[in-house]
Amino acid sequence: MATLAGKTLVITGASRGIGLAIALRAARDGANIVILAKTEKPHPTLPGTIHTAAAAIEAAGGRALPVATDIRDEGQIAAAVSAAVARFGGIDILVNNASAISLTGTLATPMKRFDLMFAVNVRGTFACSQACLPHLRHAANPHILTISPPLTMKGEWFGAHLAYTMAKYGMSECVLGLAEEFRGAGVAVNALWPRTVIDTAALRLLPFPIRPENCRRPGIVADAAHVILCRDARSHSGHFHLDEDVLRGAGVTDFAPYRAAPGGDLIPDLFVA
Fold first, then answer.
1. Which residues are CB-contacts of 98 (< 8 A; sequence separation ≥ 6)?
2. Considering the domain boundaries, does residue 241 fall inside one?
3. Do residues 35 and 64 lie in contact, with contact meaning Cβ atoms separated by under 8 Å?
4. Minimal CB count within 10 Å: which of 255, 259, 261, 270?
5. Higher pLDDT, 264 or 8
């Protein structure tokens, strides 16, 4: 069976939600997880810190290195990468998961929020990839996996929340460009996105309610990420995956265990037709 045992994963935004779920799935294999997130102390509305995440990762069977990091700051990223290499000897995988969201129209999007989304989503993805690539090139089966949507150029995705769409698509454009640029170096660069809405704490902060019975758990994204990250890097790059499709391809037929709560119709995630 494919495994991430002994691999070192740098995961941004891994203190909660999908990032933490990916970390815990890799930890069950015995992987090393470098947690890059800002939350050192409990947040007033969101659960989890880099330290609670580290404890959960080690309880699951992995080794954890929590590094308080604002991925808008290249100096902090460089320090985190250096700490990862010093602790674990290298980097095998980067998961670009951290993201800022504001589902607002143009007139309702303050420029401060616009700048935050572009700084975290686009700049953060580019900067973390840039910092990790020199080490990834020396890994046996190097991967970059970015949690971003397929590039579907439909007006409906832009009209409702232009700034957020551009910021998320910027992450996907990094996937497209890096996959091509580093194909010859054997570094796989792929994207993963949920087919349905995922029940996370961040979902509670949206201006409209979505019930758990209309969502799946973060574990479905984590299991799909595990499948992708265990593939041969030289033969699998430049793809935009949906979690359900990845798992169906791996032989999964029963998706009921991924439901956040029984009953209700699942809601397709943004950018999914």
1. 12, 13, 19, 36, 37, 71, 120, 124
2. yes
3. yes
4. 261
5. 8
Evaluate whether residue 82 is within a structural domain.
Answer: yes
Number of folded domains in the chain? 1
Q: Which residue type is seen at 237?
A: S
Total count of residues recorded for the chain: 273
Q: What is the pLDDT of residues 31-45, one digit of tens each?
A: 999 999 998 888 777
Q: Residue 41: which domain range?
A: 8-258
* 126: DSSP letter: H
Instruction: Determine, yes or no, domain membership for 76.
Output: yes
Whose CA is closest to 229, among 270, 190, 171? 190
Q: How far is CA 99 from CA 19, 35, 106, 216, in A?
A: 10, 15, 19, 19
Each residue's pLDDT tens digit, 110-131:
999 999 999 999 999 999 999 9
pLDDT digits (tens, 9 = 90+) for 170-186: 999 999 999 999 999 99
Catalytic residue numbers, as ranges = 164
For the whole model, what pTM was predicted? 0.97
Of 265, 243, 267, nearest to 194 by C-alpha is 243
- 4, 5, 95 from 187: Cα distances, Å: 16, 19, 13
Report DSSP state, residue 64: E
Number of helices (H), then strands (E), belonging to the chain: the values are 9, 7
Structure tokens belonging to residue 63: 């080794």
- Phi first, then psi, for residue 11 (nearest 5°) are -125, 120
Q: Does any domain span residue 205?
A: yes
The Cα 236–Cα 15 span in angstroms is 28
- Kindly give the interhelix angle for 17-27 and 219-229, rounded to the nearest 10 degrees: 50
- What is the widest separation between alpha-carbon atoms in the chain? 51
